[in-house]
Design brief:
This protein has 9 helices and 12 strands. By secondary structure, the chain is of the alpha/beta class. A hairpin with a 5-residue loop joins strand 2 and strand 3. The structure holds glutamine. The site of glutamine (GLN) has 12 residues, from loops.
């Protein structure tokens, strides 16, 4: 008898549980429907990878919040197009790898649009012109020829690294790699390396804000393969919808003055 009543109890408990589950399932289904009805594109939160320190495009402010031209353009475009995203400051090379392995949906990181990268990424319309440069701290180094026999700092996976690699035999210097721009600058300031290679808008910003006491001594020709504009990128063949929303939003914020307002905030002379 005891066993039977226990069994009845447990059947009753299971039934109650099942009713509970159905009720929960029912209510959560209707909640999802309500959400869908009020904000249809809210379901997707895109993961957008970026660099860690690449002012004025992306950098953490004093409170640790990410700011910069890329960060604000993305926010304005997402608002214009009604998509949600999460910004992932991974570092430049890591950001590219995250997109290539589909761990992130896209990258915005002052990323130069190049033919080689077009083989593996789909790019947005260009949104900012750039070129690459070499900068030094030692005033006795005034030209690339002065780097003969010296070691220079480059940032892994960047176009400025490609430029340095392409001219190092001609000028007789060797390169050492860094993952982040700020650590690379510190290495030159400490006198460990004779120069660093960097994007000109970024090096120029660091110098003009008084944060980094370096001097630009050379720049790649503006028509060279190293001087290409920045684009937002997705893994090739993936996230076509996100890419077209970026382009549509970019066109809108250019037309309504938001793009200029964001750039002017960081780059006064632009
Ligand atoms: N514009 C350079 C490139 O794409 C560097 C970008 C960066 O360091 N965030 O290679």
């Amino acid at each position: 008898m005891q066993n039977l009543s226990k069994r009845i109890m447990s059947v009753a408990a299971a039934a109650a549980l099942a009713v509970g589950l159905v009720a929960c399932g029912g209510s959560s289904t209707s909640e999802t429907k309500t959400d869908d009805a009020t904000a249809s594109s809210d379901a997707v939160v895109y993961k957008i990878a970026t660099d860690t320190t690449f002012a004025p495009f992306e950098f953490a402010d004093a409170s640790g919040t990410y700011v910069g031209i890329d960060v604000e353009l993305l926010a304005a475009i997402a608002e214009d197009q009604g998509f949600q995203y999460e910004l992932e400051p991974l570092g430049f090379d890591a950001a590219l790898q995250a997109v290539q392995s589909n761990q992130s949906d896209a990258v915005i990181a002052g990323m130069s649009i190049t033919d080689a990268r077009k083989e593996v990424f789909d790019f947005s319309e260009p949104y900012y012109d750039s070129t690459v440069c070499a900068a030094v701290s030692d005033a006795s180094i005034t030209k690339l020829e002065d780097l003969k026999g010296k070691t220079v700092a480059v940032k892994t996976g960047t176009m400025s690294e490609s430029w340095a690699e392409s001219i190092k035999d001609q000028y007789g210097f060797t390169t050492v790699q860094f993952d982040t721009s700020d650590v690379m600058y510190q290495d030159v300031l400490a006198g460990n390396t004779a120069a660093c290679f960097e994007d000109t808008p970024v090096m120029g910003y660091a110098i003009s804000t008084g944060n980094v006491a370096l001097t630009i001594i050379a720049e790649a020709a503006s028509d060279s393969e190293f001087a290409t504009p920045y684009g937002f990128a997705v893994n090739k063949g993936q996230n076509a919808e996100l890419l077209s929303m970026f382009d549509a939003g970019l066109a809108n914020i250019k037309a309504n003055g938001t793009y200029d307002a964001i750039v002017d905030k960081y780059v006064k002379s632009k």
